[in-house]
Design goal:
The protein has 370 residues and is α/β, with parallel strands linked by helices. It folds into 2 domains: 1-26 and 297-370, no CATH class; 30-64 and 69-269, TIM Barrel, CATH 3.20.20. 46% of the residues lie in helices and 13% in strands. It is built from 15 helices and 13 strands. The chain has helices at 6-11, 32-41, 44-48, 51-64, 78-85, 104-109, 119-131, 149-158, 166-174, 176-200, 219-233, 257-260, 276-285, 305-320, 349-368; strands at residues 70-71, 87-90, 94-97, 133-134, 137-138, 142-147, 204-209, 238-239, 242-243, 246-250, 267-269, 291-296, 335-339. It has a 7-stranded parallel β-sheet. A two-stranded antiparallel sheet has the order 2-3. α8 crosses α10 (176-200). Bound molecules: coproporphyrinogen III. Coproporphyrinogen III is lined by residues 24-29, 38, 44, 71, 73, 75-77, 94-95, 145, 161, 208, 210, 342.
């Protein structure tokens, strides 16, 4: 039994009393309690690979803020790690791989991720589900996730984070056949990985296509979108009698919403470069009443209480002026509040309390005045 099912309802455009809220990277370094657990674990990977610690940090933001969903604490790069690429996190330097894919020979040797090496993730999912129970009921639903095949390929080929993913894009333009072979392996790996997360207890799935927006028009559809569609076509859409919503986030994808609406997702997540009202109108134009997630600029959280509240109010006023998803729906239904990208590690934790209060208050007031 779910105590709070606003998030799941909003994913399917159903009526809710207030707009559900969660934040990308809600468990992270801006929280002192996260840093304390990370210190106990010794490192980021020590944290992510230990189900008890992963559960502890997943629950931390829920104890501080009135959030409507939990997200599995892990990382998208666990999947290429389980392909044998050797994931490392050097302190202060971000992730890197010991064995990036640079040559045809590297690609020939690549194999689908071994799900046995990802047991710590599935164990974390079931442990988090148990940790979410309070007085016999589950506080909020749990979101599982994966990187998109293209976004994973960016890290697998370049070997670390990058401004332009020069090696990945060079392979794409010079040897698209090689990139497509990597993508095929990533598609099978991501589909298996997300399916196992659902079996372990994930109640919604999000695909992070963080670097889809680096691609030229045409290449995005061919290399990122088509691969996500193939993943989604293999995913379970129902588990234990409940529908599993699928959220797709392409950072910089606002210009491609009408294409993104075709791949079988239930929710499209937006960064801050497109307004929610414009996104809603574009989707209704093509008769795709999908829910939207987003899209406040995370840097707004560095301004003051009044500015944060004003920006939240503007976001909701904009959406309130757009058409509703259907009859007997408020314009605000079918929206999940989130940031347009992950919360910054330098965010003052009190700003998130201000944000949450503003979301709750404004989204209730607007719904009351329908
Ligand atoms: O949202 C959540 O709270 C769940 C946890 C989560 C993490 N990474 C934890 C993390 C999720 C959903 C991710 C996804 C992820 N990881 C993405 C896609 C989403 C996005 O932000 O675009 C990407 C591209 C990665 C790869 C990755 N992991 C990078 C580039 C970095 C270093 C950058 C940074 O912020 O330091 C990470 C590390 C990482 N993953 C941290 C966390 C909390 C910080 C590591 C630490 O504690 O030292």
């Amino acid at each position: 039994m779910l105590l709070n099912d606003r998030f799941l309802k909003a994913c399917f455009g159903e009526v809710v009393d207030q707009t559900p809220l969660w934040l990308m990277r809600q468990a992270g370094r801006y929280l002192p309690e996260y840093n304390a657990t990370r210190a106990k674990a010794g490192s980021f990977l020590g944290l992510a690979k230990n189900p008890a610690y992963a559960t502890e940090v997943t629950l931390q933001p829920l104890d501080r803020y009135p959030l409507d969903a939990a997200i599995l604490f892990s990382d998208i790069l666990t999947v290429p790690d389980a392909m044998g690429l050797g994931l490392q996190f050097a302190t202060g330097e971000g992730p890197s791989f010991q064995h990036p894919l640079r040559t045809e020979d590297d690609v020939n040797k690549l194999r689908t991720a071994d799900m046995n090496q990802l047991h710590y993730v599935f164990d974390a999912v079931s442990e988090i589900r148990k940790g979410l129970i309070q007085d016999g009921r589950q506080r909020v639903p749990l979101i599982g996730f994966s990187g998109s095949p293209w976004t994973l390929a960016c890290y697998m080929i370049d070997g670390s984070g990058s401004d332009d993913f020069r090696h990945a894009k060079t392979m794409m333009f010079a040897r698209p056949d090689l990139l497509e072979r990597i993508l095929e392996i990533n598609i099978q790996s991501v589909a298996a990985y997300l399916t196992e997360q659902v079996k372990a207890g994930a109640q919604a799935l999000m695909i992070f296509d963080t670097w889809g927006g680096l691609l030229p028009n045409g290449w995005y559809q061919r290399m990122s979108l088509a691969a996500m569609q193939k993943v989604i076509s293999q995913l379970p859409r129902k588990h234990e009698g409940r529908k599993i919503p699928i959220i797709v986030f392409t950072k910089g994808g606002g210009i491609w919403l009408k294409d993104m609406a075709q791949i079988g997702a239930d929710v499209l997540a937006l960064d801050w470069t497109i307004s929610l009202s414009r996104a809603r109108k574009e989707l209704l134009e093509i008769n795709k009443p999908l829910a939207l997630q987003g899209n406040l600029d995370p840097l707004v959280l560095f301004s003051g209480t009044k500015q944060i509240t004003d920006q939240v109010n503007n976001l909701f006023d904009d959406l309130a002026g757009a058409p509703a998803l259907g009859p007997n729906r408020h314009s605000l239904d079918g929206h999940i509040f989130n940031l347009g990208h992950g919360i910054s590690q330098f965010t003052p934790p009190d700003s998130v309390s201000v944000l949450a209060s503003a979301v709750i208050e404004k989204s209730r007031v607007l719904r009351a005045s329908r």
